[in-house]
Specification:
The protein is mainly beta. It contains two helices and 18 strands. 26% of the residues are buried.
Length: 295
């Protein structure tokens, strides 16, 4: 993706984000999978112009997996499956507030089990235990973001496989009219600067409906509740709702997300934040989408 946006007070930002993924089967059972990310690592102040500066390349995931029937085991660096909004909501600014609870760059082990029939719906149970990545893979090329250490703090960053995510996904379930569901729970243990362990739950649903011969409507809604956010005494309610229309090579999508933070002393830190975005896109060819959006 190549983006151009205004930063206010005359500033202009031009940036690139690319997420190339790869997989390499080793034999009938084992496979190596990974994803790289090239993106802007630092946001500049309002009114400052930035033309493709401060970009870094890093490894977001790299795992060795083994599949035995419907069960898959994996180990390495991965993104725990907590929430779908950051992937499911389309548009230039589609991630919205759901990015606040997105989990990335953890190191550990996991297992998943898939069942069901393709024509009536499929189901997936998953579980993983992990810690924050502090290996050399937590650094970056081009512009350095530095290698993370446990001394940097943060929930889940303690060098122990003591944090976890449990998830359940149901895709295009015939009995519910083709709805898909995502449910997950997480626990992140204390880092050196944490007051509390963090816990969270998330639930979301999505579907696709044919509206006429050339139009598909894809609604999405997701809610997350996080207690002791980032190891603090604060709790958060976050939700996202979106609607996308696909009309041949054209697509139009709109979403609104909101985050409410509750603290022991509301007068000091209670807050509500909302984000609205709309994007129009045109599919130039397979894999190449031109978009213009507003947030």
């Amino acid at each position: 993706d190549i983006g151009i946006s205004g930063l206010g007070s005359g500033g202009t930002e031009m940036s690139v984000k690319a997420e190339p993924a790869f997989s390499a089967p080793l034999n009938d059972y084992f496979q190596v999978k990974g994803q790289l990310v090239l993106e802007q690592l630092e946001n500049l102040p309002s009114g400052t112009s930035n033309y493709f500066e401060n970009h870094g390349l890093f490894v977001e995931s790299l795992t060795l997996s083994a599949r035995v029937g419907d069960v898959e085991f994996y180990a390495g660096k991965f993104n725990p499956e907590f929430g779908k909004g950051h992937d499911e909501v389309p548009g230039i600014y589609g991630e919205g507030i759901s990015e606040e609870y997105k989990m990335t760059e953890r190191v550990g082990i996991g297992i998943s089990y898939e069942f069901g029939e393709e024509n009536s719906g499929t189901y997936r149970l998953g579980a993983s235990i992990f810690t924050t990545d502090t290996s050399f893979l937590s650094g970056s090329l081009l512009k350095s973001r530095g290698q993370l250490t446990t001394a940097d703090g943060g929930v889940g960053n303690n060098g122990k496989l003591s944090s976890f995510v449990i998830s359940f996904d149901a895709d295009e379930i015939e009995a519910t009219g083709g709805l898909s569901f995502h449910l997950a729970a997480r626990r992140q243990t204390k880092g050196v600067d944490s007051l509390k362990e963090e816990f969270g739950i998330v639930a979301g649903t999505s579907s696709k409906f044919q509206v006429g011969e050339m139009v598909t409507w894809a609604p999405f809604i997701e809610y997350a509740y996080i207690t002791n956010v980032d190891g603090t005494l604060n709790d958060r309610n976050l939700w996202t709702i979106s609607s996308a229309l696909y009309m041949g090579d054209w697509q139009v999508n709109t979403s609104y997300s909101q985050m409410t933070t509750a603290c022991e002393n509301v007068s000091l830190c209670g807050s509500k934040q909302g984000r609205f975005q709309t994007t129009v896109g045109y599919q130039l060819k397979e894999g190449l989408l031109l978009e213009a959006g507003y947030q």
